[in-house]
Predict the 3D structure of the following.
Amino acid sequence: MHLNINRIMFGYIKNILKNECLKSVTIRAKKRREVAYNFETAKTMGVIYPFDVGMSTILDALNDIAQRYDIEIVFLIYFPQEKLPVGISENSPSRIFFSDNECNWFGKPKTAAIYSFINTKFNILIDLSSKFWFPLQYITISSHADFKIGRISEETNNPYNFVLSGSASAERFIKDLETYLHKIK
């Protein structure tokens, strides 16, 4: 019983620290230059998401868009577990994998590859998370990207310049993304 109360208190304190961390990062991020891009004007694009087998449709579509418009694309893939699954290859310039092992005790990413991604000045950053993941929120808020796109969610701090429906299917999300970004001139 005593151990259970300690766990609950520790979890509560940990959540307070996470929220304070996100608040301080948000304050610093407000200083970034916000510029709207569409696929015709963007030259670089970062995409972050928690690993999900069902995401392949969106990722393939984003790869197709990047090829069609000659956009350099980098994927940052988060595995919300202690270690990367067996068979996941090492990072490459276009794909960065990380798990909870690459985060500190309350979820703040700590590897050079992730900080390199954060410091890259992407024209467009797309956060495909449909729910709150602290490491992905931290990365999105901290990112030096000019134009941040994400899904509407009650759980996130909404660090985006542009939001789309969080409940849309993969196909609908991509269609909406293309439709609305083409309207930005």
